[in-house]
Structures are given as structure tokens and as C-alpha cells.
Amino acid sequence: MAFSAENRKGTMSGILFVAIFAAAATYIAGLGPVKALGLSPLVIGIVMGIFYANTLHNQMPKEWQTGITFSGKKILRFAIVIYGFRITFQQIAEVGMDGFLVSLIMLSSTLILGSWVGTKIFGMEKDTSILTASGAAVCGAAAVLATEPVLKAEEYKTAIAVSMVVLFGTISMFLYPVLYTTIIEHATGFLHMTAREFGIYVGGTIHEVAQVVAVPASVPGAPTEMADAAVIVKMTRVIMIAPMLIVLGLYLAWSAKKEGGSRNEKTKLVIPWFAVYFIMVAGFNSFHLIPQNIVDIINEIDTFLLTMAMTALGMGTIFAKFKGLGLAPVYTALSMFVWLVGGGFIITKTVVEFL
After folding, report:
1. Handedness of CA 277, 282, 287, 289 (dihedral sign)
2. Residue 220: pLDDT above 80?
């Protein structure tokens, strides 16, 4: 046990060690040039953790490992729960049926496509494929983190998925404003999008919340309805992570049972209760019982806790474990990126015009 009499001191030291790294990551993410790139503290944290794991890891007292594991598991789940303070049900209702359908279709199709392409086409094992797909389908690194406990995946697989999300999410952040200003804004017919339509497209297809915020801000003279639609649709995708994880748990139990793996621990249905609590917190937040300035503080604390979890996962990522994977993760993530950009455009236009 992490906090048993013999492990308590080492656990606390490990948690403090991770917190120091997370504080440094938070500081770095706030620096001008880094902030301009849209890199969140979560991404900086996992990079720092990976660097440490592959350089100075052997210098750390072994007793601290329980604290690092605690940060990557328990703190992570608590952080996902209070992530619900970022969302209200009113926001979801505000976006309308077209925005909701775009979110649902893009999440489902990207998750299924990415998982299938990764395993069947590029030969990746199932956990890495699903983690990579969940990051692209929902909300980037936070979705990868939320999916990891359901899969019981190893840290290095999570790190692979996060790195793919960061790579193609960053490309999206620079690509979308260029597409809008050079093609979409001036086009006629099917290729043209209104500001609201483009906002739905951005919110329904770009990986990270921060990247979604950055895109409308990068479009010269963009009306507020573009940014509003983008953020609300994105937050609709975020809250869908809870039902996605529950369905994923059911699928894993069914799949393992079908394969006859009665002794495989994944045959047991795992209900991700933290996902259920996440919805409950979002529901509570919808009543606006807590002043907004307090909610903002809670969200800042939550970001720090998520950064701690990412840092801890990075500390468990050893490059030697990557051998044999080759470029399969890149090809898988690229396939999803093409679908998000191209397929997402078609889905958005079709749904908006149909409704």
C-alpha cells in the first residue's frame, strides 16, 4: 500500500518530487514563446518526465517509486473527476443539435477508425491503437490519460499516444487558420463555411481544448460566434469521454470473453467510476452554486494535478520499450488526422445543411 507505515515516507517524497517537476512544467508553459505554440503544461510535463526517465532515473531512491505511481494513477483519476468543473450542460444545449451530432459522429468514427487502422493495417497492439485513437477522438492528452486506467496500459504506450496527439494537434493549430483565410472564407458552394460552421468544424475535429481556442484567435477579424461555437462543440466532445469510457469497458469485457480469455483480467467488466463522477461534477457545475472565481481556481488546481499525472507517466517511459514499433504510431495518427481534416469538413457541412 502506498501509505502503509513502511511506504508512507517514500510515497510522500515521490509525490513531492513529481510536484516539483509539474511546477517547473507549469512555469515553462507560461513563458511567452512556449505559450505562443499552444503547448500546455501537460505536454511539457510528460516531456520532462520522459527526459528524466532516460537520463537520471537510476539516481532516484527506489522508495520514491510508490509516490510516482500514485501520481500517475490515483491523482490522475481525481483530476479527471474535477475536470467536470470546466463544463456545464447549458453549454452543450447552447451549441444546438448540429454541433452535438458533429461531435458524436466525429468522436465515434475517429475512435473506431483509429483503433482499426492501428491494429489491422499498421500492426500495432490494441492498447496503443485505442489510446492514440481516444486522444484524437476526444480531447487530446487528457483523453489519453482518462483511457489509460480502463485499458490498464503501460506508461510507454500512453506516452506514444500523447506524442502523436501533440504532433498532429499542433499541425492542426497552424493548418486550420490558413485553410479558412485562403480557401474556406472566399470559396462558394460546398467549400464555403460561415463563421459558425467553421467554429463547429474546429471544435469537432481538433485535438486539444487549447488548440481549439487558438485557431479562431489566429483568424484575422474572426467574429465571436466562431470562437463560441468552436469552444462549446469542443466541450461537448469532452463530456462525451465518460460514456465513451463506459462503452469501451463493456467492449473490452465482451471482446476478451469472446476470445476465451477467462483468466485474462480484462474479461472482468471494469466500470470507470471516475468517468461517472466526472459527469456528476459537470452536472453540479451546471447549477452555478460555486462562484466563478472559485471555479477558476479549481480548474487551475486541476490543470496542475493533470500535469503531475502526465509527468509521472513520463517518468515511467523508457525508450528501450519503443523498439519494434517503427513508424506505425505515426501512420495511424496520420490516418486519423486526414479523416479529421477531410472527413470532418464533409460531416460538418452535411450535418449543418441537413439540419
Report:
1. positive
2. yes
Distance (Å, whole) CA 245 – CA 150: 7
Considering only CA atoms, which of 131, 138, 135 is closest in space to residue 153?
131
Burial class (CB in 10 A: 0-12, 13-18, 19+), 36: exposed
* CA–CA distance, 229 with 95 (Å, rounded to integer): 6
Closest CA to 331 of 47, 108, 43, 114: 114
- DSSP secondary structure letter of residue 232: H
On whether the pTM is more than 0.90, the answer is no
pLDDT digit string (tens) for 68-126? 989 988 898 898 889 889 888 887 787 789 999 999 999 999 999 999 999 999 999 89
Task: Dump the DSSP string for 243-278.
Answer: HHHHHHHHHHHHHHHHTT-TTSGGGS----HHHHHH
**Longest distance between any two alpha carbons in the chain, whole Å:** 70
Q: Helices (DSSP H) in the chain: which residue ranges?
A: 8-29, 32-36, 41-53, 65-70, 76-82, 89-116, 126-137, 141-151, 155-179, 195-205, 209-217, 224-239, 241-258, 273-285, 292-315, 328-338, 344-354
Inter-residue contact 52 to 314 (CB < 8 Å): yes
Is there a contact between 227 and 217 (Cβ–Cβ < 8 Å)? Answer: yes
**Distance in angstroms (rounded) separating the CA atoms of residues 17 and 49:** 11
Domain edges within the chain:
8-354
* Selection from 33, 13, 89 nearest residue 281 by Cα: 89
b/e per residue 171-181 (b: at least 16 CB within 10 A): ebbeebbebbe
CA atoms within 13 A on the CB side of 128: 25
Give the confidence band of 270 by pLDDT, cuts at 50, 70, 90: low
Q: What is the dihedral of CA 301, 317, 322, 260, to 10 degrees?
A: -80
Give the residue from 51, 69, 67 showing the smallest Cα distance to 159.
51
